[in-house]
Design goal:
Strand order of the largest sheet: 1-2-3
Number of strands: 3
Radius of gyration: 32 Å
Number of domains: 2
Mean pLDDT: 84
CATH superfamily of the largest domain: Intergrase catalytic core
Strand content: under 5%
Order of helices and strands: HHHHHHHHHEEEHHHHHH
Number of helices: 15
Distance between the termini: 110 Å
CATH class of the largest domain: Mainly Alpha
Low-confidence stretches: none
Structural class: mainly alpha
């Protein structure tokens, strides 16, 4: 016999039978968009990395403006994504993933699209391009007081391989520079994982001097991810290197470490890669193994046989079987 009171409405009965998550999703459909999207931002902020929250909010703010007063729907989401049809596969995949995650929380619906991301090699950045980027910073005409900070920003990128968001979130208290093995701690990196990154003497001394007098809670560079991207884009354009962006400096670190013979597992730990397969893509950029393998296919010179004076002569055996004697 059922224990559910008869006076329960159909909606209340559904919630009782199917649980709290169904209740929340049903209530989501009655909320105004301003409240709905803010609740989602609060939800992902507690469980996902700042970089992901930033990218999600950047796209979903546009989606909210696109909706106006209409409630979110799969059909409207697909219409919204159409305007990005000429973007790269990576960008379209990222946007569809962000919207899919939102709809999973909002209603449980799934977007009927899947963008296949091509497996591309990381960008190769020669050290000469880094030098030109630093020269553009030193030659800038305005905000000259920030030249030392901006130069150190690029050098920290080059010496640690941090992501843009990780560098923006770096606090003075995350710098451990007085120990025998100086490190910086990355808090809440990709996948909400912390990691430590070793520092060489040069960058340790520069960071120590720059952070001197600041409190532990102060941001090291005082820049948001978007500001870092804007600065590097400006310097790269002035240097005649429009292909450079913040992640280019991370690619420089990965390929340089492989070029100089670093252990792949150590590179993986330093850069915070989930799998070694991701790390090994930097080795593929250099093509060192492929070159050595390709050389094996070249025609090898025939080896000259040394003269053997015994060739063709049957060997003489000095072993003799014992003579059989008749037993009497």
């Amino acid at each position: 016999m059922s224990s559910v009171p008869e006076e329960l409405s159909t909606r209340e009965l559904l919630i009782t039978l199917l649980g709290e998550e169904v209740r929340r999703k049903l209530e989501n459909r009655t909320k105004p968009n301003n409240k709905l999207f803010q609740e989602y931002y609060d939800f992902i902020t507690t469980s996902l990395s700042p970089a992901y929250v930033y990218e999600s909010r950047r796209l979903l703010d546009k989606f909210q403006a696109f909706l106006g007063d209409f409630p979110p729907s799969v059909e409207l989401a697909l219409n919204f994504l159409v305007q990005y049809h000429n973007r790269s596969d990576n960008t379209r995949a990222k946007y569809s993933f962000i919207l899919s995650a939102f709809f999973k929380w909002y209603s449980g619906d799934r977007l009927p699209i899947k963008v296949k991301v091509p497996k591309m090699l990381p960008q190769y950045v020669p050290v000469e391009d880094i030098d030109r980027l630093l020269e553009a910073i030193h030659n800038k005409q305005s905000h000259k007081k920030n030249i030392s900070r901006d130069t150190l920003l690029i050098e920290t990128f080059m010496m640690t391989g941090l992501r843009r968001g990780e560098l923006a979130n770096l606090k003075v208290g995350d710098l451990h520079l007085t120990e025998d093995n100086p490190v910086l701690i990355v808090r809440g990196g990709k996948g909400k994982k912390d990691r430590s990154v070793g520092l060489n003497t040069s960058i340790r001394d520069k960071l120590a001097a720059f952070a001197s007098g600041k409190s532990h809670q102060d941001s090291v560079f005082g820049l948001k991810p978007k500001s870092i991207s804007g600065k590097i884009r400006t310097w790269a354009d002035k240097a005649g290197l429009p292909q450079l962006h913040p992640h280019s400096l991370r690619h420089y670190v990965g390929t340089t470490l492989f070029q100089r013979g670093a252990n792949p597992r150590a590179i993986q730990a330093m850069m915070g890669h989930e799998s070694l397969e991701t790390t090994m893509r930097y080795a593929a950029v250099l093509g060192k193994d492929m070159k050595e393998t390709a050389q094996l296919l070249e025609k090898q010179p025939e080896k000259t046989k040394a003269y053997d004076p015994t060739a063709g002569i049957m060997p003489v055996s000095y072993s003799k079987e014992p003579e059989k004697r008749d037993k009497k």
